Structure formats: C-alpha cells, structure tokens
Predict the 3D structure of the following.
Amino acid sequence: MPVELNEFLKHYTPINFQYWKLYREERIKKEALRFSRLNDTFKALKLSVEERVIHQLSEDYIKHLSAFNFLMEDATSILKYLQSHYKLHIITNGFNEVQYRKMDTSNIIHFFETITNSEIAGVKKPNPKIFNFALNLAKAKPEQSIMIGDSMEADVEGALNIGMDAIFFNPNNASFNGGIKGVSKLIELKMYL
C-alpha cells in the first residue's frame, strides 16, 4: 500500500526526534535507533512490514543518505564567510559512516579543520566529554569558541554548560529562551560573527 511522503513524514519526524533523544542519552544503540524509528512509523501508519524489510530499508537509507548533497539555503556562502574569519570544526552525534560522505558529496568538507563525531569521542552531545574532546582536537578553549547548532539540548545547552558561547540555528522558529542567541537563516549568523 503506497504512502504519501507528507503522511509518512508527519509520523516519522517526531518519532525520529524521540529516538535521537534516546540515542543522545545513551539509552539505545544506533542499530535500535535505525530500526525502531522506521518500525514505529509503520505501526503509526497501520502498515504491517516485515522486520527483515525494515532492516533492509534502514541500511539502504543510511547507504543512500550520503549520496544526496542537499544544503540549507546560504550554507556555502556563510561557510566561506566564516572560514575567512574563523577556524571551523564540527561536533556531531551523526553516524561516522555517513557524516564524512555527506560532507564530501556536498563539497563542504574542506571548510572544516576537524570533525568530531560521537562514535570517536565515545559519548554524545550534550555530554561535556564530547565538547572537551573536540576542543582538545581543535586546540581551542571554550571561552574562545562558539557552537552553532540546531538542537537546543544537544548543541546549545551542551556548549553553554562547558563555558562555550552558542547560537541556536532555528529554521522552524521554535520558541526558546530569549537570552540565547538565535537565527532562523544561516546568513543571519553575520549579525553575531
């Protein structure tokens, strides 16, 4: 039975968000995240899908995800601007086997001096250890660094908790504490940097 993409995403997006939260909190492993987010979505859609098919879809999704080079509006121009003023680094909870390929396919990997992912660091954002791992790798200090991220909990609060400044990238205009810097478009980063 075919499912409309918007109908699938209506269920998948919040389910995926919840599983990433569990993953960040070290309550599930990546294999469980990959399988369960699809399995729960199919259940919410009242579709019966065999486990082996869900496992295959999960593997195919990860394999093909890195083949797409979609970037947010103004991503390349803001990276050029930022690189001319700062040393850029990445801290991600994303899967090691996907992150490098995605960045390479999108032709942005050259903007970054280091890439720290949770699998290398052994912990996930917002755990202070991943931030300290990344800072050590970058030979940087928290008070001289700023985190730009799209997760209030993982990125912004994680950075603030170790004494690093932060900017919340908020393209969906979610409500948040007014004392925190925020932008809804990447180009708006020029207001702060």
Notes: Strands lie at 89-92, 114-117, 146-149, 165-169, 181-183.
